[in-house]
Design brief:
Layout: E1 2-7, H1 12-21, E2 27-30, H2 42-52, E3 56-59, H3 67-72, H4 74-94, E4 101-105, H5 134-154, E5 158-163, E6 165-167, H6 180-194, E7 198-202, E8 208-209, E9 211-213, H7 214-227, E10 234-236, E11 242-243, H8 244-255, E12 260-264, H9 279-285, H10 293-306
Parallel strand pairs: 1-2, 1-3, 3-4, 4-5, 5-10, 6-9, 7-12
Antiparallel strand pairs: 8-11
Helix pairs in contact: 1-7, 2-4, 4-5, 6-8, 8-10
Length: about 300
């Protein structure tokens, strides 16, 4: 029976990863919440690892959100994400008699602002991230650097995956910290209920994003955990992009909003384009995204209505 510690198990991606990993009959999942394991406290991590002795650590816990909260809390996002990761990796290194693998999960926000499309893993260091979420992106990029350094000096088997924006059930619909899809779903839904004539959205709609079903991302993490052992980062995505303007039209149709869309061009677009080269994930551990984007959008909306988060 292999013990796997999953940090952030109660979060959006964590729900999906736990579902996939629990299907492996030879594994025991350790899924502590913040009250049982505070990743900001190195001593608490040390005692937890010593008590439960996981063989694999999958690090999903992070403080993240959309453009607005990234702009409002850049220092907090940088510090908290770096400290959680630093404490956890160092403690795993000191307990390498039983911790045999560390699975780090990064972010597409780490890529430079004007990375050529499709983003290739070797482009990661060719510039500075988009300014509105650079502190968060850089904190995640440092996780990769720490894993590389610890592999070289201590032999820690740390791998690093870079997923794109994720969507699906269990997403965060909080007004202050949600990402673009749940934020739009909520805006259009409320406008429909209120009988509003228009919905106001940030930017001009020209930026593009790539969206991955969180269940597919969980499949990629599971495959990499079992099959991948290189220190080189791997993109996780679909390889397909959509403009924010087209995304808004899709969500408007799914929700059934009959009004107009107004773009607030005084607000930032964020990174101009996001679309990954996903060939390495297929080559190294056989991952390909399967979910249909339109179906996932519709299912996410239905889940949000059923769970009263809109």
């Amino acid at each position: 029976m292999k013990k796997i510690l999953i940090t952030g198990a109660g979060g959006f991606l964590g729900h999906h990863v736990c579902k996939v990993m629990s299907q492996h009959p030879d594994t025991m999942l350790l899924t502590p919440d913040r009250l049982r394991l505070d990743l900001m406290d190195y001593e608490e991590i040390k005692y937890y690892l010593n008590d439960y002795k996981p063989e694999i650590v999958i690090h999903l816990a992070a403080q993240c959100g959309g453009i607005g909260i990234n702009q409002n809390k850049p220092g907090e996002f940088l510090y908290n994400n770096m400290m959680m990761t630093t404490n956890l990796i160092e403690s795993c290194r000191r307990n390498d008699r039983f911790v045999k693998k560390f699975v780090g999960v990064g972010t597409v926000c780490s890529y430079p602002k004007h990375t050529p499309v499709p983003f290739k893993e070797e482009d990661l260091y060719n510039g500075y991230p988009e300014e509105t979420n650079a502190p968060y992106g850089l904190a995640k990029r440092m996780q990769l650097e720490m894993l590389r350094a610890y592999r070289t000096q201590y032999g820690l088997n740390g791998i690093f995956l870079i997923p794109v924006n994720m969507i699906g059930e269990h997403d965060n619909f909080d007004d202050d910290s949600s990402h673009v899809v749940p934020a739009m779903l909520k805006k259009f839904h409320r406008a429909k209920l209120n009988g509003d004539s228009s919905v106001l959205l940030w930017g001009d709609g020209s930026a593009s994003r790539e969206f991955l079903y969180a269940g597919d991302c969980a499949d990629a993490i599971s495959r990499a955990t079992l099959l991948y052992n290189s220190g080189e980062p791997v993109n996780i995505g679909t390889g397909k992009e959509i403009t924010i303007r087209d995304l808004a039209e899709k969500i408007k149709e799914i929700v059934g909003f009959q009004g107009t869309i107004v773009w607030d061009v005084t607000k930032p677009n964020g990174q101009p384009r996001r679309c990954l080269d996903v060939s390495k994930a297929k080559e190294r551990f056989g991952f390909e995204a399967k979910a249909d984007f339109d179906v996932v959008l519709a299912n996410t909306y239905e889940w949000a209505k059923q769970n009263d988060v809109l």
